[in-house]
Amino acid sequence: MVALLLSVALFPVYPGVQPLRAGTIVARAILAPRDLSYESEVRTNAVRKQAADAIPEVVVLDTTVRDRQLADLERVLREVDRVRRDPALSASARESAIRGVPGTTISQDAAATLARLSPEQWDAMTAEVRAALGRTLVGSVASSEVDQAKNRAAGFFSPSLSDAERIAARELVAPLIIPTLKTDAPRTEAQRKQARENTPPVKVSFNRGQPVVDAGDQVDAAGIEALDRLGVNDGALRWPVAAGALLISIAAGVVCAVAAPMVGSLEGARRRLLFALLLAVAVLVAKSAAPFLLPDDQRRYLALALPLCAAPLAATLLLDAGAGLLMAGLLGALIAFAGVAAPGKNLGEASALEVVQFAAAMAIGSLAAVGIASRTDRGQRVILAGLAAGIGVATTASALLLLDPDRRFVDLPWLIGSSAAGGLWTAVLATFAFTLLGRMFGIVTRVQLMELGQLSHPLMRRLQDEAPGTFQHAMLVGNLAERAADRIGADPLLVRVGAYYHDVGKLYSPAFFVENFGDDPSPHEHIDPMQSNRVIQQHVTQGIELARKERLPEAIIQFIPEHHGTRLVAYFYRRAAEVRPDVSPDLFRYPGPKPQSRETALVMIADACEATARSMTDRSTERIREVVERTIRERIEEGQLDECPLSLRDLKIVADTYTATLNAVFHPRVEYPEPTRRELADRGAALPAVPRSADPARQVIVADLPLPPRPTISEDDTP
Predict the structure, then answer these.
(1) CATH assignment of the domain containing 363
(2) Is 214 within the bounds of a domain?
(3) Which residue, of 410, 442, 474, is where some domain finishes?
(4) Residue 423 has pLDDT above 70, yes or no
(5) Per-residue confidence band for 332, with pLDDT thresholds at 50, 70 and 90
(6) Neighbouring-strand partners of residue 60
(7) How far is CA 45 from the centre of its chain?
(8) Cβ atoms of 505 and 667 closer than 8 Å
């Protein structure tokens, strides 16, 4: 998950950063970050195109042109003659029809001339036209020589033609005069190809620091090529960077895979997905912001204001310090990669120092935040972790500022201000992530557990006031289960807090539960066992409702139904069976589910062991061990532990732990003798009468004996 999400986050596509295109005017000079010499494809193609264009087209005489054009002339002449001979046409209609003959551009005057020619004049003109066109197209006529050929054709007309007839004849011939030379494409392309091949490639060289494009210049195609070759074209997709992002993402995934077994909080797909998302989002923010904040030309250190430390801080709050430390280390390395890979950095010494400053400051700030958050027991202290992050960022950045040859005193206020803003936003975002993601992923955090474990919590107050017996029972169950959880590697804090709230449903009818009877008679003596069973079972369903009403985490609510599993309410079932032997035991069975985790299973066993031990008169070590082992054996035989990951080894440790703890709680106590007369006299209490001895010789009146003086305490003595 880490490798996949990071490869997406680090892929070299930057929102808001568009690659330079030909025609773009750059605002500032772009310098070459390194020495580079290469054959420019763009410049080479341009030079070779010029060489090819300098080769003229190879042309040859097309002997078919003259015959085609003469044939076309005959068609035009026949059509004009047909119109001239049509008696049905008026003079104006005849002129219009002549002008409309296809392939001609005859003027109104020429059409009038052609229409009124006599047959002899028409024959003479057509002979002149045929001769002029034939003589004109017999030689070579290039495309550039068409107008000259038309003028030459007019010069072939006989002087016997009138001026009007000469104009009409020219208009008939002119459209038919076309080039007689055609391009020999294969020979032309062969010569141009040879010219391109004979042109050597153009080599371009840049020295480090040399301007590739000056400020205010318009970038051309050659400039774009140079920027791409140098890797400084903002926003352009660079496959070496993409490959590097993939490799470092895989490396981070391998580190997480190796470290996950050593970080207990990363057990489970949800927790691992949460870790991967927090890391990927922080890296994505760093990558997206780097093109805009680095290099810092105005020296405002705005990159230090990015709340990237919020990700390790949130990981610590939601998971644990191990997850936060792992993320802090990975984040520093990934931020450094994102800073170097950002487009258009032109990394010189100062810019490289800025990237190192950015990455190192975020890593140290994250470690400081994790260190404070790992000891946080209340949500309000997250602000201290944010403050620690800001101090860590400012200290690290200030240390690296001393290495900058361009450092100035005025840089320090900007650096401190940006770091402080980043620390504040770190606390805000971590709190937001802590609240939102904790609920979204169903993760109960250590801070939440510690707050819920406070006896000042409203539900704990209600238990103390309304069901004191249940409260004491919950406290002891919590102590039992917490110690066992610590020894078998479960979550001791979750177990203790879950035990505190496992019986909150008894607040609805505390007087119906034996630990709250006191000296009062049992209310169950006067009601039906079925009704008593309903009251007892309701403490599970009502407890879930009350817990959700009080917004307890689901991880705590699970203790309420699972600490009973699907067991029988045995006492009332047996009472009901005495009256109705055929009564179904399913009516007296808790709704479940069975314990799904080691933590809820520990509370199930501790709940039964504490209740049984409290009700016994014989609380010897042997008897308590027998009760604990019998309770565990019954739960195994009933299948109540089938769905939780408790091993037989775990159960052996649990039995030993519960036995030792219950022995410590219910250890035998010595009976103290009555206070002596001297103690009573010292307290100023009334002395009891002393019985006289039967033997008068041995009779002593203790009351008549003188009492020693009371000791005095001077002002210098310490009582």
Answers:
(1) 1.10.1760
(2) no
(3) 442
(4) yes
(5) very high
(6) 182
(7) 44
(8) no
